[in-house]
TrEMBL record:
The lineage of its organism: Eukaryota, Metazoa, Cnidaria, Anthozoa, Octocorallia. Residues 1-98 form the Dynein axonemal assembly factor 5 TPR repeats domain. This is Dynein assembly factor 5, axonemal-like. PANTHER family: DYNEIN ASSEMBLY FACTOR 5, AXONEMAL (PTHR16216), DYNEIN AXONEMAL ASSEMBLY FACTOR 5 (PTHR16216:SF2). SUPFAM superfamilies: ARM repeat. GO terms for molecular function: dynein intermediate chain binding. It comes from the Eukaryota. It holds the Pfam family HEAT_DAAF5. GO terms for cellular component: cytoplasm. It comes from Paramuricea clavata. GO terms for biological process: cilium movement; inner dynein arm assembly; outer dynein arm assembly.
Length: 630
C-alpha cells in the first residue's frame, strides 16, 4: 500500500516512509521482507524523482541480497539487474563514451560469478560516497542485527563497486579493522570477505601503503588493533591475484619481520601471522627465495613464543611450504640455508639479552631445531653462549643457557658435535662457562646455578665431548670447584657432582698426581655419611674410580698414613645397614687392596670383630689372600 501511494504521488513523502521501510528489512516474516524488495525495486524503476533517492533506496534493495531466504535473494538480485539495465539505457550516451575509452571494462568479475551489468556498477560508483559512511557507522551499532546487516551490505556494495572502492580505501580499511574485532562471528566473516574483494579490485600498492604503517607502528598500538590489521591484510592479500601481489610481497615480509610485529605473545596475533605466511607462501612460488629469510624468522619467532605447542602443525606446514617453494626436500634444508643468517642478526643484540628477551627465545628455538647445521657454526655460537653465561649476567638467563647446552649435549651427534668440532671449543665452554658458575655463593639462586652448571658438565662428559687433553689442562681448577660442590646444600648437586667426579677420574685416571688424589679422599669419605643413600651409592662408584686412578708407582710406604685413613674410613661402612652400600664399599675395598694388600689386611683385622656381620670382612680377606702373590 505504501509503495502504491508513494508511486502515485509526487514522491515528496519518500523520506518520511523510508525509516519505516528500513525497519521492515529486520522483520521476522519472510513475506514482509520480500515485499520490501518488491516495493523498493518498483520505486527504483518507476519513481519519477528516483535519481534523487538512489543513495537512500539502493541499500534497502541490496540488503535483500544477503537474506536468509534464497527466493528473496534472487528477487532482490533480479530487481537490481533491471534497475541497472534501465539506468544504462537512460544514460546510454554517457556510457558509450566511457566504454570507448575502456574505463568501465578493465576489471574481471569474481571467479565463479558473472560480472554485474554496467548500469549496476555505475549506480554503486556514483552513490558509494553517500552510502558508505552510513554502512560503516552501522557496523559499530550496539545491536548485533544492525551490525550483521551492515557488514553484509558492505560486501555487496564492494562487489558492485569493484575498483571504484579505491577512492574510499582509507575509510573503508578503518571500518574493516573495527568490523573484524566484532564479537559476532557472522560480522567477522562478512568483513573478511569484503577485505578479499578489496584485494581483488584495489591495487596492492594502494592498500599496502595504508595497512603496513599500522603494523610497523605496532609498538604504539594495542595487541587487538594489531590483530585486526593482520586479519585484514591477510584477507586482502588472499583476494589479490598472484600476478598483481607478487611484486609487493617482499614489502609485506619486510614489515611483518620487524620485532614489534612478530615478537608477539598474543595467540590471536600469532595465528594471524601464520595465516599471512601461508598466504604469502602460496602466492609467491619460486619468487619466495627473495624473502624466505624473513618468512623463516617470522615462523621461528612464532615457534618460540607459542604456548604449549598450540600451533605446531601450522608451523610445520609453513616451513614445509617454504621449503617446497625453494625446491628443497624438507625444512631441514631451510635451516641449513638460513641458520647462519639468523645467528648473524642475533649477534647484534645478544650482549643485552635477558631470560625474557624474544631474541634469546629465538636463539634457543633455532639451535634446538636446526639439527646438524649447529655443529658447523660453533665459532659463532660458542662466543654468544659464553657472553650469556658470564657470572655477572641475570641468573635466570644463565639457567636457560645451561638448559640449552644440556639438551644439545644429549643429542650432540645431531647438533653441536655433528662435525666432531665441539671438542675444539670444549675448553672455552669449560673454563669460561661452567667453572665460573660452580663457584660457591650464598642463596637459593646460586644453588640453582651450581646445579645447572654441574648438570651441563655431566651432560658434556656423558656425551664424550670433553677431550682428555682439555680435561688434564683444566683439572686442578675444575677439581677445586667440584670438591666444593660435593658439600653443596642441594642433594641434586651433590648427587650429580659425585657422578661427574667418577667420569673425570675414569677419563683422566693416568693424570692424577698424588696431591690431587690426597685432596679428594677426605671429601669422598665425608659424602659416605650423606643423608641420602642414593648419593652414598654414587659415591661408592666414585671411590671405585678413585682407587683405579692411583699411579702404579704410588709410594705406599711414604703415604701409609693416607692409606690407613682411606681404608679405615671405608671399613666403617662395610657394616652399613644398607646392603647396597655394603656391596658398593666391598668393591671399593677390593680395588683399594691392590694398592697395598698388607695395610688393607691389617686394617680389616683391626675392625672385623666390631662388625655385626663378618661376612663382608671375610670375603675381603679371602680376596686379598687370593690376589696376593705368595
Amino acid at each position: 500500500t505504501v509503495g502504491v501511494v508513494i508511486q502515485g504521488g509526487d514522491g515528496k513523502n519518500v523520506d518520511s516512509v523510508l525509516p519505516h521501510i528500513a525497519q521492515r528489512t529486520f522483520d521476522e516474516n519472510p513475506a514482509v521482507r520480500s515485499m520490501v524488495s518488491t516495493v523498493v525495486g518498483g520505486w527504483l524503476l518507476d519513481l519519477r524523482d528516483r535519481y534523487s533517492y538512489f543513495h537512500k533506496l539502493l541499500p534497502l534493495l541490496l540488503t535483500g541480497l544477503s537474506d536468509d531466504i534464497q527466493e528473496i535473494q534472487k528477487k532482490s538480485s533480479d530487481l537490481f539487474d533491471k534497475v541497472g539495465q534501465q539506468y544504462e539505457k537512460e544514460n546510454e550516451a554517457d556510457f558509450k563514451d566511457k566504454q570507448d575509452f575502456q574505463v568501465w571494462d578493465k576489471n574481471v568479475g569474481i571467479e565463479g560469478k558473472s560480472r554485474p551489468c554496467l548500469g549496476c556498477r555505475a549506480l554503486i560508483e556514483r552513490n558509494l560516497s553517500k552510502i558508505l559512511p552510513a554502512i560503516l557507522r552501522d557496523m559499530t551499532d550496539w545491536t548485533a542485527g544492525t551490525r550483521i546487516k551492515a557488514a553484509s551490505l558492505l560486501y555487496h556494495m564492494l562487489y558492485y563497486a569493484e575498483d571504484n572502492a579505491t577512492q574510499h580505501i582509507e575509510a573503508l580499511l578503518g571500518g574493516l579493522y573495527k568490523g573484524c574485532r566484532d564479537e559476532e562471528s557472522s560480522v567477522v566473516k562478512e568483513v573478511l570477505a569484503s577485505a578479499e574483494l578489496v584485494g581483488q579490485h584495489v591495487e596492492p600498492a594502494v592498500y599496502l601503503k595504508l595497512c603496513l604503517p599500522h603494523l610497523t607502528s605496532a609498538s604504539t598500538t594495542s595487541t587487538q588493533q594489531t590483530a585486526s590489521v593482520l586479519k585484514i591484510l591477510t584477507a586482502t592479500v588472499k583476494g589479490t591475484s598472484d600476478e598483481r601481489i607478487k611484486p609487493h610481497l617482499k614489502v609485506v615480509c619486510d614489515a611483518v619481520v620487524i620485532p614489534d610485529v612478530c615478537d608477539t605473545e598474543s595467540a590471536d596475533n600469532q595465528e594471524q601471522l601464520l595465516c599471512l605466511v601461508e598466504i604469502i607462501t602460496s602466492k609467491s612460488g619460486e619468487q619466495c627465495a627473495q624473502y624466505s629469510l624473513q618468512l623463516f624468522i617470522v615462523v621461528l619467532h612464532l615457534m618460540s613464543l607459542q604456548r604449549e605447542g598450540m600451533f605446531d602443525e601450522k608451523i610445520r606446514n609453513c616451513l614445509k611450504n617454504i621449503a617446497v617453494n625453494l625446491q628443497f626436500e624438507g625444512a631441514r634444508d631451510l635451516y641449513k640455508l638460513h641458520t647462519k643468517d639468523v645467528i648473524e642478526k642475533l649477534k647484534e643484540s645478544h650482549t643485552s639479552w635477558t631470560s625474557h628477551s624474544s631474541s634469546r627465545l629465538l636463539f634457543n628455538t633455532l639451535l634446538l631445531n636446526a639439527g646438524p647445521v649447529v655443529g658447523t657454526l660453533l665459532s659463532d655460537i660458542v662466543p654468544m653462549v659464553t657472553v650469556c653465561l658470564n657470572p655477572e649476567k641475570d641468573p635466570e638467563l644463565r639457567l636457560k643457557f645451561f638448559s640449552l647446552l644440556s639438551k644439545l649435549s644429549v643429542d650432540s651427534a645431531n647438533t653441536i658435535n655433528s662435525t666432531s668440532e665441539f671438542p675444539q671449543h670444549s675448553r672455552t665452554v669449560l673454563v669460561d662457562c661452567i667453572i665460573p658458575n660452580l663457584v660457591w655463593k650464598a642463596g637459593r639462586v646460586a644453588i640453582a646455578i651450581r646445579t645447572a652448571a654441574i648438570s651441563t658438565l655431566w651432560a658434556i662428559l656423558h656425551a664424550d665431548l670433553l677431550p682428555v687433553e682439555t680435561c688434564n689442562s683444566t683439572l686442578k681448577d675444575l677439581l677445586t670447584q667440584i670438591i666444593s660442590c660435593l658439600d653443596d646444600h642441594s642433594p641434586t648437586t651433590r648427587s650429580i657432582t659425585s657422578q661427574v667426579l667418577e667420569k673425570l677420574l675414569t677419563l683422566c685416571k693416568d693424570h692424577y698426581n698424588v696431591d690431587l688424589l690426597h685432596s679428594l679422599y677426605p671429601e669422598l669419605l665425608k659424602r659416605m655419611d650423606d643423608s641420602s643413600d642414593e648419593i652414598r651409592v654414587f659415591v661408592t662408584k666414585t671411590l671405585l674410580a678413585f682407587f683405579r686412578a692411583f699411579p702404579s708407582d704410588y709410594d705406599k710406604d711414604l703415604y701409609k698414613l693416607h692409606l690407613e685413613a682411606m681404608f679405615k674410613g671405608l671399613l666403617v661402612h662395610l657394616d652399613d645397614s644398607s646392603s647396597h652400600i655394603q656391596e658398593g664399599v666391598l668393591l671399593c675395598l677390593k680395588e683399594a687392596s691392590n694398592i697395598s694388600p698388607s695395610i688393607m689386611k691389617e686394617q680389616v683385622k683391626l675392625v672385623q670383630h666390631k662388625h655385626r656381620v663378618s661376612r663382608y670382612c671375610d670375603e675381603l680377606l679371602q680376596y686379598i689372600n687370593n690376589t696376593t702373590t705368595p
